[in-house]
Here is the input.
Amino acid sequence: MGKSLTEKIIETHLVKGEMKPGEEIFINIDQTMTHDINAVMTYLAFEQIGLDRIGIKTAVSHLDHNLLYINTNTPDDHIYLQTAAKRYGVNVSRPGNGICHTIQSARFAVPGEILMGGDSHTPHSGSMGMLAIGVGGMDVATAMTGLPMRITMPRVINVKLTGKLKPGVNSKEIILEMLRIVSIKGGLGNVYEYTGDALKNLEVPQRATITNMGAELGATSSIFPADEMVFKYMKAQGREDEFKEMLPDEDAKYSEVIDINLSELEPLIALPHQPDNVVKLKDAEKEKVQQVFIGSCTNTSYADVAKAALVFKGRKVNENVSCTMAISSKQIYKSLLKDGYIDMLLDAGVRLLEFACGPCCAIGQTPATDGVALRTSNRNFKGRAGSPSAKIYLVSPETAAASAITGTFTSAEEILKDNINILDEIVEPNEYYIDDSLIIKPLPLEEAKEVEVIKGPNIKHLPIPEVPKENVILPVSLKTVDNISTDDITPASAEFSSMRSNIPEMSKYCYFRYDSSFSQRAKDMGESIIIGGENYGQGSSREHAAINPMYLGVKIVLAKSIARIHKSNLLNHGIIPMIFEDKSDYDKIELFDELEIDNLREGIKNKRVLIKCSNKNLEFYAKLELTENEIEVALAGGQLQFLKKELKERGIISE
Ligand code: MIC
Ligand code: SF4
Here is the structure.
């Protein structure tokens, strides 16, 4: 029986376990990546592990998210990250080079390899026939040791793309259509593998919009084959010698097939406040647009920006719209500059920002009070842009440009009319501007050992969780609704991102937008439990959404369901993730209820615990959806303690 591409890649990396969907398997990792607002915890953990150098082929530390330096914390973090990378054999992509996913694909991704990245949009590099999985920072620290990594064998879903996108319709529409079909939690446990005739017209950066935003489906990853388009891209990057054809077998068997005819797609828009709230642009109730942001790793390829520039050409940004753009890399900017597109943007009144994440995660460009923001990025959660009163809509760069001109929702076709076909003429360059001078390569081991790792005063210790006790009585410190995102738990923004190295300080703001009394309440309770709804912890991979509650004494998160990366982050940082056996019990529990569990450690081993609500004369069961290895991590009090034990047993570290 034929194999999918995902199975082929996993097979060549498999160390332990059976490749059956849902089974725990262990795989070798070729590459890791981290970025500045998450990585301090990752490298602090790596330091604690006690190895002299990384044990994998390629690791990259990208300094790309928070480049505003609104205080001394972030530049201090960057100095720490740069020196720690030098010390341990990690590449550094310096500020100004570009957004992690764009750089990782352009300069490091290799078809057939496996990448683990400390960012939920790591599947971006799946556009090049690579299996790229987003995880939390502690998992990246573990992967950097070179030990095989635990994953759950995914179900592989085939997405068959036929037809051809019309001009003015972007690959953003393909992933928005997927979100409409699958929903924000429908992808849990799946890898989406794209095939079909339409691939011959989809270039790597267009594919990356899809694999990148596949994170919004809650999926493990998304992948395209490494075919002639990937060869073209790698050749244009001067890396054709690293190309390897990677295709699924013709008779590959998939768990499910989804068909999308690209010729039928029209401009789409995701309405506030979830990325799967997708409707046709023409059906969306028109709003007066206050802000347009064309940026992020999702949608600022050369072709994306060039097409937006053609929509703007000879026209002006509406006087009521604040229109900014953050192109995702210096490389793309230079190519656009050479080809005259930057002039078109500047002449239209578009404000160019740094090659960084920036506004995508609220690092600058907060919309006005009640402002309507049209963005080409991937998430529109409430508060994501820095203001809970803003309404964020997600669209393609073509639609964003057209709407910036009129000041309301407008398609590129409405602006360009009969001239719309000019957008079809834009293709990715055959040769990109190549200059790796902003990448610092690893030093040889002996030189690296001499490097001094510099830690600024804001960099505090990584808190180590306690091992779970036998019997607990835990008051409920918070009860949440469905689809709580990690942005709700610990927002990004310039200010909060700059606090991420200092958990005692940052934990004061845990959940502050959702329930500003949570942090103090949890602290006062000493130990507590959080009750969550469906898809708890969706969105970003930031493990601070687990570390902060752990620091505040939260021992268990009991929810209707928990998003993949967040579940792993909870476990890694000593919080036990539990699921209601009967979801209707969720309705019976309230804030301040006291939940009692006897024989918790035994319950963890058996993956089932009896919970008594002492003040309500109520009893119910919770289950633990954990693998054998995850049970050991839970019992050890988190991944760091588990890993140190394991490395000692293997004789890799001594104390
Ligand atoms: C995001 O897009 O939300 C981020 C900021 O890139 C995060 C990473 C983080 O918060 O550390 C992500 O997607 O994982
Ligand atoms: Fe950066 Fe936004 Fe991409 Fe996250 S989604 S990596 S914040 S550009």
